[in-house]
Design goal:
It is a single chain. This protein has no helices and 16 strands. By secondary structure, it is mainly beta. The protein has one domain (2-31, 39-245). The strands form two sheets. Strands 1, 2, 3, 4, 5, 6, 7, 8, 9, 10, 11, 12, 13 and 16 form a 14-stranded antiparallel β-sheet that branches. β2 and β3 (37-51) form a beta hairpin. It is globular. The two termini are 28 Å apart.
Length: 249
Amino acid sequence: MNGNLTIPLPLNDNFAILTGLTYEMATSSFNPGRNEESLTGTTLKLGANVKHSDKWSGTYLILPKISSDFKELSNRDFQLGAVVLMKYKKSDHLNYKIGIYTNSELLGPVLVPLFGFYYLSSSEKLEAKVLLPVAVDLNYSITEHFRFGLTFKGQVRTYNLNTPIEVEKERYVQRSINDVYSYFQYGMDNGINFQVGVGRSVGRSYRIYDDKVSFALPLAYFGDNRKQLNTDFSDSWLFKITAFYRLKL
């Protein structure tokens, strides 16, 4: 289960405070024969969106997080992240994005370069939202209310496990997902939208470790001498239902 709330508070035409909250929860048996364990991540968004010129604007966020099984809370349950994302407006229908994301994950410090763009066709039917390596959304408006799309979402998250198993201490789950799915979306005039998607998880894993790496980039882990403490999940089909509300500003 996932939830995402973003609230912009504009102070003037060039500056808006950004705040909000994200919530993630997954429950599973992470090894055959073991009881189910629940993982929860709650992230607070604190930052601003600044219009620097007619062409350039920037989003700046601090992201404190609690990421844990919530059986108890310690300093290992807290993480701190940040993101800087710059946007260059090429035209009313096209902009480019470049930025960086970092977080103090339990596996070690993580740094993710971000590259992307937003495109809306002149007919306003075809829309492309790309932010590599984390998200791609391509969609086409069939009617005023119905939309068909194709989405990719990839992420790596770590969650502290507070309960030791035998000699295993400071265990954590490294959750890696790569979801590809198509969807139909229905949008109501009042801003409420419903989305139903079907697709496939590719290369997903929920791996348990009790050691760290020196430094992590997307698809590259430096100083990785960790030993995996559970068995891997297989890939599977996925079915996703989403409801969201978007303010019409």
